[in-house]
Design brief:
Distance between the termini: 61 Å
Order of helices and strands: HHHHHHHHH
Helix content: over 70%
Radius of gyration: 21 Å
Largest sheet: none
Structural class: mainly alpha
Shape: elongated
């Protein structure tokens, strides 16, 4: 057998490091926890999915992990890694972009009884390494699935709001009312965030 880590004759499971993927899940969790919704408007990243894809690709490159081997390996354990599997197919990371397959993976994982049990058992402080991975997967899965389903609606609302601002500047009364309502809602949300409620 060759010493080359990426030799096709090597068993992917022997190359696959669950610790590196666990670290990727932890890093994704931290990134998602610190991502503000306002970043959707950032000029640096027009798309939060691009930011996540870049982060995953950089992580794989930094740890010298072959994305194809990782995808093959994590696909053998969909309960623990469904968020990554779905995202790989959604973004075409070392595979063809397949949004249908990504949706199927997200949908099945969210409806999986074992994952739902983990959500209800999250208060249990005694956890094994595998349980940590499953918990992180569950949290990230819910974020990715929501983004997958509602991203277009969020973008539509953002673009629609920009259109109303332009129309209000031109004197359109209906657009002006919509902009005023959105500003008031935004103020209330900001006040609630400042008050911690």
């Amino acid at each position: 057998m060759s010493n080359n880590l990426y030799d096709k004759n090597n068993d992917p499971q022997s190359i696959f490091s669950p610790d590196s993927i666990k670290e990727l899940l932890y890093d994704l969790y931290i990134l998602l926890s610190n991502t503000d919704v306002k970043e959707l408007d950032s000029s640096e990243y027009n798309d939060i999915e691009d930011k996540l894809k870049e982060f995953i690709n950089n992580f794989l490159f930094e740890y010298d992990l072959d994305p194809k081997i990782i995808l093959t390996s994590i696909s053998q354990n969909t309960i623990s890694y469904s968020c990554l599997i779905g995202f790989f197919y959604q973004q075409g990371i070392e595979c063809e972009v397949n949004r249908s397959k990504a949706f199927e993976i997200y949908f099945n994982a969210v409806n999986n009884e074992e994952i739902n049990k983990l959500i209800s058992d999250q208060k249990n402080e005694v956890a094994l390494c595998e349980d940590d991975i499953k918990r992180l997967n569950t949290i990230i899965l819910q974020y990715f699935y929501s983004l997958f389903l509602y991203k277009d609606i969020i973008i539509y609302r953002k673009d629609n709001y920009k259109l109303h601002i332009k129309q209000a500047e031109k004197g359109d009364p209906a657009s002006l009312v919509i902009v005023i309502i959105m500003v008031e809602i935004s103020k209330k949300i900001t006040i609630r965030q400042l008050n911690g409620t």
